[in-house]
Design goal:
mainly beta, six-stranded parallel beta sheet
């Protein structure tokens, strides 16, 4: 397939060598894919970049989803079930990401197999983490989760443009700003695994700051998705301009509003 948008609603591709092959399908989008009982792979992505697959079901193939010499592709809402070899096979493939997906463990193979210097990401994906396989010492796979901050001041007013800084256990730093609705979003790594074992990046220490506010510093364990409400206290305030307000409003540790 080399079309820009592919919709395969209602079609089940079965009993072939490869159920669905994406070859050089760069910058494309495919939705509602279903492949079963194919002898090599349910879906193979070959020499392709920036392809997005959404709502994918692959069952009882040898490999469920096979990334072959492909980079920067995304599979969203992937369901890979009881494939006899590997549920997901990465071969010489990097920076691909599996998002919001479910890998149902099979009896005979790995949930993922990474080979030929493959480095990829599983984001908010359910699987058996004891069945991540590696065919070489250079490949790795990272497990990530969503972290969402919602930042308020001590009067429960949302705070836009607050600076959010996080540090992992290895000393790497991640930064962002709250948006107009006071949210900041991160995808953070719980661990990265190679043939030698897991390296954990969690726990993360956060620091949230904005001029005119006290900072808020704490820690979070990223072994699942997290939604955190954070309060940063005002250092000062602006006198009330409309009478009356009851009770007197306390704006921070060093200022009290004047009420008419």
């Amino acid at each position: 397939y080399k079309r820009q948008v592919i919709n395969m609603t209602g079609n089940v591709i079965e009993n072939n060598t490869i159920g669905i092959l994406f070859y050089e399908c760069n910058n494309s989008y495919a939705i509602h894919l279903n492949a079963t009982k194919n002898s090599r792979a349910g879906i193979e992505i070959f020499q392709t970049s920036y392809l997005t697959l959404e709502n994918v079901w692959v069952r009882e193939n040898k490999a469920g989803l096979y990334f072959n010499t492909s980079q920067n592709n995304t599979a969203v809402k992937l369901h890979t079930i009881n494939n006899t070899g590997e549920e997901i096979y990465f071969h010489s493939s990097k920076d691909n990401i599996i998002v919001d997906s479910v890998i149902i463990n099979n009896v005979t193979g790995n949930d993922t197999l990474s080979a030929a210097v493959s480095r990829n990401i599983l984001l908010n994906t359910t699987l058996n983490t004891s069945r991540l396989g590696f065919a070489d010492s250079y490949s790795n796979i990272s497990r990530q989760w969503y972290l969402t901050f919602y930042v308020l001041d001590n009067e429960s007013i949302p705070v836009a443009d607050a600076n959010v800084s996080l540090n992992d256990t290895l000393g790497s730093n991640y930064t962002g700003l709250t948006d107009r609705y006071a949210y900041a979003y991160f995808n953070l790594t719980e661990f990265r695994e190679t043939s030698a074992g897991k390296t954990y990046y969690s726990n993360y220490t956060w620091n949230i700051t904005k001029k005119g506010y006290m900072s808020n510093t704490s820690m979070v364990n990223m072994s699942r998705n997290r939604n955190i409400n954070v309060t940063i206290n005002l250092l000062g305030g602006i006198p009330d301009t409309e009478p009356p307000t009851t009770p007197i409003v306390y704006d921070g540790y060093d200022y009290i509003d004047y009420d008419w």
